[in-house]
Amino acid sequence: MHMNALVMGGTKFFGRDLVRCLLEERCRVTLATRGRTVDPFGADVERVVFDRTDCAIMADAFSSRRFDIVFDQIAFEPKEIEDACRVFHGRIGHYVFTSSGSVYAPQGPRLKEEDFDPAAIRLDDGREAPFDYAEGKRRAEAALVQRATFPVAAARLSIVLGPDDPTGRFQFHVDRVRRDEPIVVPRSCGRLSFVSAAEAGRFVAWLGLQGKTGAWNGASARPRSAAEIVQRISRVCRRSPRMLEEGDKRDRSPFCYTGDDWTLDAGKARRAGFRFGGFAQWFDAMVRASPSSA
Predict the structure, then answer these.
(1) Which positions ≥6 away from 24 have C-beta within 8 Å?
(2) Which residues are bridge partners to 217 per DSSP?
């Protein structure tokens, strides 16, 4: 039986990869967005325009709808999840929330799912929005676990790399190497976990289509440091990198978050049958395909 899937978001970055995976699996896909971004899916998907920040509008948009799976790509705060739990009560079979590896605090190496328990978060502690990104995702997960009346899963993704990355972090490095411009990478920078946009979309789809519940880390097997990223780009571009240990803040690699390793252990997903490709399998091709910047 073909599943009826709702994707809240799905028109940007790896959300498009998620939708492509669902269509390949012959799901009936509905995209729910604010209607501001053109998507490439044409008549293959149905579309609903809604305002995620208004629970009444959201309830009206889905009042007569039922879905096997809801994929939530756009929740960043607990209220958004609490609204969704009310709206979709009794109407869906499964809910997959795209969370983040940022939920882990403190950051460290080889973080496993049990290192953050959203059930232990108090949502009535008096703290109010706006929250920073990491705290917003923590509390969103907490709201999902504590309020949902349907099965739920959270995809805790590592840093997602892709040609359409809205943060520009990947393209920053490629452009600087190609233009022979300096990149500041302090010696103290630790290693990070990464995953490609295509694999992130495939992973989120897998969680829903396989009916997985609970928290799941998503990351390629081998972490990399900012220096390794620059060196690999340089090899692909056949350039000599200009890496400096000190320099202007504007030249600093955006992959220098901390002096310690900050990595995710995706062993749980691998043991359950999901296979992340090796870093080199997708990274080199991504560099070659990245657009040239003027």
Answers:
(1) none
(2) 156
Q: Taking Cα atoms as reference points, which of 164, 119, 167, 191 lies closest to residue 289?
A: 164
CA distance 132 to 168: 20
**Residue 157 scores a pLDDT above 60:** yes
Instruction: Encode burial over 27-45: b for 16+ CB neighbours within 10 A, e otherwise.
Output: bbbbbbbeeeeebebeeeb
Q: Tell me the CA distances in angstroms from 103 to 24, 81, 140, 168, one per residue in order.
A: 31, 16, 10, 22
Q: What are phi and psi of 151, to 5 degrees?
A: -65, 140
How are beta strands 159-161 and 69-72 bridged, if at all? Answer: unpaired
- Pick from 104-108, 154-158, 210-214: least confident: 104-108
Q: How many CB atoms lie within 10 A of CB 285?
A: 12
Of the candidates 68, 33, 37, the one whose C-alpha atom is nearest the C-alpha of residue 47 is 33
Specify the pairing of strand 4-8 against strand 69-72.
Answer: parallel
> From the centroid of its chain, how far is CA 230?
22
Instruction: Work out the pLDDT band at 284, boundaries 50, 70, 90.
Output: very high
Q: Give the span between the Cα atoms of 177 and 115, in whole angstroms.
A: 37
Asked if residues 293 and 239 have their Cβ atoms less than 8 Å apart, the reply is no
Closest CA to 227 of 171, 174, 183: 183
What are the CA-CA distances from residue 274 to residues 21, 82, 90, 94, 165 (Å)?
14, 30, 29, 19, 23
Q: Are the C-beta atoms of 282 and 234 separated by less than 8 Å? A: no
φ, ψ for residue 277, nearest 5 deg: -70, 160
Q: Cβ contacts of residue 195 below 8 Å, gap of 6+?
A: 157, 158, 159, 160, 161, 203, 218, 219, 220, 276
4-158+196-218 topology per CATH = Rossmann fold (3.40.50)
Q: Is a pLDDT exceeding 60 seen at residue 294? A: no
Contacts of 220 (CB under 8 A, 6+ apart): 158, 193, 194, 195, 196, 199, 266, 276, 277, 278, 279, 282
Looking at residues 11-26, what average pLDDT do you find? Answer: 97
